[in-house]
Amino acid sequence: MERLRTTIAEDLTAVSGTCSMCGRSFRVFVRETLEDAIRLLRRSFKLHCRLRHGILVKELPAGYEVDQIVNDLGLPAFVFARDTRKLIAANDRFLQVMEYTESEAKALRLEDLRAPEDLPFLLEGLAENFGDGSLESRYRTRNGRSLRVHLRYRDLILMRHAEEIGDVCFVVVTRYEAA
Q1: Taking Cα atoms as reference points, which of 159, 137, 165 lies closest to residue 149?
Q2: Which of 173, 162, 22 is nearest to 91 (CA)?
Q3: Domains in the chain: how many in total?
Q4: Partner residues linked to 96 by β-bridges
Q5: Is residue 71 part of a domain?
Q6: How far apart are CA 89 and CA 79, in angstroms?
Q7: pLDDT tens string for the chain (179 positions)?
Q8: 78 and 13 share one domain
């Protein structure tokens, strides 16, 4: 989902954009270069999203992949795409706890990790929750073992070179035990 639609005035004196979540307009005048104005517009947009919608906008450096967000953590962690609910990255600790291989995890959706009776709560929660928070839930490992997990989550908009590459949720499992 595109969060900021950018338009450039015909005379190149201003750059404007609109947040697709709430319709707020942004306008930045070109002082030095068009690129500087677009950078300033993106900065205003990032601040707006964090304060108004509770969503962080993270600019990934060139060559930096989504997997690197979770790989350095000591706790089990994963990242999923909000629109498809598909896991796009998971660290080794999470894979070990959930008994999946890296290749198996790439095919998983959130629904595959949850107990079937919890799916209505999952879908309801995803429809309502934006921003960050924590929750306790039941997860199901690859071998069918049930775990009670405590999660911390944070919604992110990932960008690279001022282009949006994903609306994702970053999840850290802070505690887990057999249910």
Answers
A1: 137
A2: 173
A3: 2
A4: none
A5: yes
A6: 5
A7: 345 555 555 556 777 777 766 777 877 777 778 777 777 777 777 777 767 766 666 666 666 677 887 887 889 999 998 888 999 889 999 999 999 999 999 899 999 998 888 888 888 877 775 667 888 889 999 999 999 999 998 888 777 665 666 788 889 999 999 88
A8: no
62 part of a folded domain: no
Compute CA distances 120 → 35, 39, 109, 114, whole Å. Answer: 45, 41, 15, 10
Sheet holding 25-29, edge to edge: 4-8, 14-19, 25-29
Q: Please state whether beta strands 56-59 and 146-160 pair in parallel, antiparallel, or not at all (unpaired).
A: parallel
Q: Are strands 163-178 and 77-81 parallel, antiparallel or unpaired?
A: antiparallel
Report if residue 99 sits inside a domain.
yes
In a domain? residue 22:
yes
Give the 3-state secondary structure of 50-98: HHHHCCEEEECCCCCCCHHHHHCCCCCEEEEECCCCEEEEECHHHHHHH
pTM: 0.70
